Prior knowledge:
The protein has ten helices and six strands; from the N terminus they run βαβββαββαααααααα. By secondary structure, it is of the alpha/beta class. Among the domains are: 199 residues, Rossmann fold (3-Layer(aba) Sandwich); 42 residues, no CATH class. The chain has a six-stranded mixed beta sheet. The radius of gyration is 40 Å and the shape is elongated. The two termini are 63 Å apart. GO terms for molecular function: GTP binding; GTPase activity; microtubule binding.
Amino acid sequence: MKEGIRLPTIVVVGDQSFGKSSVLESLAGISLPRSQGICTRVPLIMRLKNNPTPTPELHLEYNGKTVPVEEAHIATAITVVTDEIAGHGKGISNTPLTLVVKKEGVPDLTMIDLPGIVRVSVHDGGQERGENSCRGTKANRAPEELLEKVTADDVNIGLGYVCVRNRVGDESFEEARMEAAALFETHPQLSRIDKSIVGIPVLAQKLVQIQANIIVRCLPLIVKNISEKLNANVAELENLPKALVSAADVMTAFMRIIGAGKESLRKLLLRGEFDEFPEDTTKHGSARLVEMLNQFSNDLHNKRLFIGGDKGLGRSQGNWTTKFPSSQRVPSYPAEKSRQDFWNAN
């Protein structure tokens, strides 16, 4: 999650098809996609915010896009976007999809629903399933043993636990709450569980409290990060040029720019100071000298500088001193050949 200031977030992990998304939809009061096998194939970030207005506000955020969604069509919209991100089939992706829910009665929470842990091969699951699957702790799969431990209050799970009943089939959320209340009231064994650890409302309150406690512990670091970003933004704002609202402002800014340019030229050309351009070697005198020498070398190779020498060499053939053989014994040496030998020797 690319955010300015990262806050503690609740992450939901567990085995595939163990009801993670069902718990989240009960907390949010909205219907999420349901299917056999892998249903959640991308990290789903759910931002819940209690909003007193009667009309819920929902939208999806992914890949820099924001798409408003109606509550009745949220499951279909999530499925369509998931296919766009992770492709069709059963493959998963680490590209997050954010669902923002502003609705009356929901807890102020941010939760991340991760793809379930796949323990068997899945058709069309992609080649990277093993690398992309999330890690988590394995839940106790022995219902009878778990029920005995819960009723005896003999379960040690760090932050604690809450017993809930998920929505079944086409039940509405109101019907599901009524069925859950009846189950924990009338079931011979479930009715023995302490009511302080039963139900979706209890779970919501507990999650809000856990998140608040973690934020309090992290508050000094959060405040420090906020202060650093605020100071950086204020400094950047102060360095921005002021708005030009009149001809006088424009003329003042223009003269300031001209003056700064003149001063830079004085430093470069007259005083040989390059502190304004420490990394720009094109403005340094040494760079100019190297450029001139390179140009001289190119001119030396490309221009016919030995034309006059060619003629002199041709006229002097045979005019040797007495210590050298006459021209009849020394063959002529063409001017072009002399140039080639000169360059080969150098």
